[in-house]
Design goal:
- By secondary structure, the protein is α+β, with helices and mostly antiparallel strands.
- Helix 5 runs antiparallel to helix 7.
- It has seven helices and four strands.
Length: about 200
């Protein structure tokens, strides 16, 4: 008979937070796909957009490739400005996604839900030392605000897909529901204390 061990996760207690974080990590892929569709509409060549973006690994590289293919094909003006803002906002979504996808989660009595950013540790030139890991406190309000940001950025990416198709003459409906003022999302708060 096999012994099954279960270590309680911080998300056993913080279920709503875990649900929202999980959705952002997963839905980032949808945002990336919408970017691919947009680049296909801008360039008129979906095959090239798809293969150029997805043959390479790494989300930052995909955004960079998409931007290189699309940006200068858009005329200067309103749509180009919206595109540039949306790409900048997508990079913030990527930062949030990566922060949550590459972390170790912990619950503490005093601080509640916290995480340690593993990528942050790996990028440091110092010898990795578990006695000096930076913790970040995360509350439901911050997570919900980040989700709001994701939804607004996704809405603008879909708006751009429609607007570019309309301008190209491939559909008769203009893009609608553009979020003109997207407020930057709240961030997790670093704690002064360290994990030991």
């Amino acid at each position: 008979m096999a012994v099954v061990l279960y270590m309680q996760s911080a998300f056993d207690r913080f279920k709503r937070e875990g649900e929202i974080i999980g959705r952002m990590v997963i839905e980032y892929g949808e945002l990336e796909w919408d970017l691919c569709l947009l680049v296909g509409h801008i360039t008129g060549d979906f095959n090239v957009a798809l293969k150029a973006m997805y043959r390479s690994r790494g989300e930052t590289q995909r955004i960079d490739i998409a931007d290189a293919l699309a940006r200068n094909r858009l005329e200067l003006g309103r749509v180009r400005t919206i595109y540039e803002q949306t790409i900048a906002h997508m990079r913030i979504c990527l930062k949030i996604r990566n922060q949550y996808a590459h972390t170790n989660w912990v619950e503490t009595a005093n601080d509640g839900l916290c995480f340690v950013n593993i990528e942050e540790i790996a990028k440091a030139n110092d010898v990795a030392d578990t006695s000096s890991l930076q913790r970040y406190k995360l509350d439901l309000q911050t997570i919900e605000d980040q989700q709001r940001f994701f939804v607004q950025v996704m809405q603008n990416m879909q708006y751009l897909c429609m607007e570019v198709q309309y301008l190209n003459g491939s559909i008769d409906v203009q893009g609608f529901h553009y979020e003109s003022e997207i407020r930057r999302p709240m961030e997790a708060k670093p704690l002064r204390s360290i994990v030991s």
